[in-house]
Design a protein that fits this description.
187 residues; alpha+beta; two-stranded antiparallel sheet; flat
Length: 187
C-alpha cells in the first residue's frame, strides 16, 4: 500500500516538471519578442530612409534623374476592378514615361509638382481610380568638384545635397563664397 501512495505524488511531481518545461519556453519566447520590439523602437532610422523621408516632406525637392517612383491606381474593365502598381524611373533627359498614358517632362519641377501632374494624367484616363504617385528611391548623380581644392574629385550626390557640403578639401585660396556651378551642358 505504501507504493500506491507514492505514485500519486510522483505523477504530480512529473506533471509539475512537464508543466514547467512547457510554460518556460513560452515565457522566454514572449520576453525575446518584447526585447526585439524595444530594439526596433530604439534603432535610428537608416540614413537612406531618413533622406527619403526628408525629400518627401520637403516642398522644394527637385525631380532628379534616377528618381524611382511608384504609381498606383485602380482600373475597371468589363466590370472587374484591378489594382495597378508600377515603378517609374525619371530618365537623364527629365522625361517620365507614365504607362500607356504619355510622357511628362519633369525639367525644372519639384516632386510635388510632378506628383500633381502625374496623378491628374492618370485620373483623366481612369476617373475615380484613386491615383497615387510616391517617391520610393532618390536618384543620385555625379558632380565634379575642382578648382581651388587639394584634389579634383567626383562626388555622388542627390537632390538634397547642399553645395557647401561638397567643398571639403579647399586650398588656402579656396572659399565656399566663390562657388561656380556649371551644368552638364556647360552653361
Amino acid at each position: 500500500m505504501k507504493t500506491a501512495r507514492i505514485l500519486p505524488y510522483r505523477s504530480s511531481f512529473l506533471f509539475g516538471v512537464l508543466l514547467c518545461f512547457a510554460v518556460f519556453p513560452l515565457f522566454a519566447q514572449q520576453q525575446q519578442q518584447q526585447q526585439r520590439q524595444q530594439q526596433q523602437q530604439q534603432e535610428p532610422v537608416p540614413q537612406a530612409d531618413s533622406r527619403l523621408i526628408l525629400a518627401l516632406s520637403t516642398a522644394d525637392y527637385p525631380a532628379t534623374p534616377g528618381d524611382v517612383y511608384t504609381l498606383s491606381y485602380m482600373t475597371s474593365m468589363g466590370g472587374t476592378a484591378a489594382a495597378v502598381q508600377a515603378p517609374l524611373v525619371l530618365d537623364a533627359g527629365y522625361q517620365l514615361k507614365v504607362q500607356n498614358m504619355g510622357t511628362i517632362s519633369a525639367r525644372n519641377k519639384t516632386y510635388l509638382q510632378l506628383r500633381r501632374e502625374v496623378e491628374t494624367l492618370v485620373t483623366r484616363n481612369y476617373p475615380l481610380s484613386g491615383a497615387s504617385f510616391t517617391l520610393t528611391r532618390m536618384g543620385s548623380f555625379s558632380v565634379l568638384v575642382s578648382g581651388e581644392t587639394i584634389i579634383a574629385v567626383n562626388r555622388s550626390v542627390d537632390g538634397l545635397t547642399r553645395i557647401a557640403t561638397l567643398a571639403a578639401g579647399l586650398t588656402g585660396k579656396g572659399s565656399i563664397r566663390f562657388i561656380r556651378v556649371i551644368s552638364a551642358n556647360g552653361a
